[in-house]
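re: that chain from earlier
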Amino acid sequence: MLKRVLVPLDGSARAEQALPVAARLAQAEGGTVVLLRVVSIPNEFVAYFTLEPIATQSVINATLEEARAYLKNLTSSGSLQSVHTETEVLLGDAAATILSVADSHHIDLIVLCSHGYTGMMRWTMGSVAEKVSQLAPVPVLVLREDGPVPVPSLSQEGSPLRVLIPLDGSVRAQAAIIPAAQLIAALAAPAQGALHLTRAVVLPDETHPGQRERETIMQQTEQYLNALAEQLREGLLDSPIADLKLSITWSVTVDTDIAAGIIRVAEQGEDTERTGASGSSQVIAMATHGYSGLQRWLMGSITLRVLHATRLPLLIVRPPDMTDKSQQI
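^ sequence. v structure.
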């Protein structure tokens, strides 16, 4: 369950776009939103500290106090008024501090915007979001500064909130399914959420004599997705998904580029009447690693490409066997 949600903030309105999402999750789960403001000192400011330590420390103290007041104000206004909150103001490197707080505060999910301010005592949200999503021991939901926010009031009327989960046939890629299901169920509550599985494939060129190979790939992919969807619906896997009462659909995504195909299906939808799926998705959920090889793809690199190109929120999940915090992607 997503009971404790961490929202890193840099003082910008852009970063605050994460607050309605975190508040919605906390309300649905009866959980807590942890607001974190990391004050980072630029290298050039450190050099000045050695020359004017008293004056520099005074500036730092004032900035820390300003950050505390800023977070306190947020907890009593807007979407957080009726939500249980905690606040933390720390001095240090933004990405490293976020990761440390996620671990020490027993965080279940990190929600942040991909862009924010830059400048003295502040940090570039885009680069921080990428570092955190690659190394966090918990799922990370990255929101785009110019993209939609996945809360019910902003979804299409009459359409369920849907999360698209691209798979490559590997167990690691499936690590995104449970966090994605929990996320969309909480965001959609009390309405029903929707989970859509897809596997992106690049088929041999039609002019290639391997038409039988094309048919075999499509058949195997359809069988895999259909079987997995049925297992999730019936609760046959060791997961809580069946209890979430989600609508579960699937489709095969065919494209000449894997990342482009994922984004196209997520943002535009596709005609998949035979499998019961239609329309666009409000969230994409991906694991950071999968296998490579025949009709499979290195999930980490594809995930980063999707992160950089899509307007939709992207939930990034590190598989359990990849959560060694000392390991770089």
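The mean pLDDT is 82.
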